Amino acid sequence: MSTPQETHHSAPALDAVRARRSYSSVTESAPSREEIEGLLAAMSSVADHSALRPWRIIELRGDARKKLGKALAKGGGMSLEKGLSKAMRAPLVLAVVVSPRKSKKVPLWEQEAVASGVAHYLGLLLHEAGWGVIWRTGEAVRSQAARKTHELEKHEYLLGWLYVGGVEDRRRKHKPRKPLDVSRHLSAL
Question: Where do transmembrane segments lie in this chain (predicted)?
Answer without folding.
Answer: none
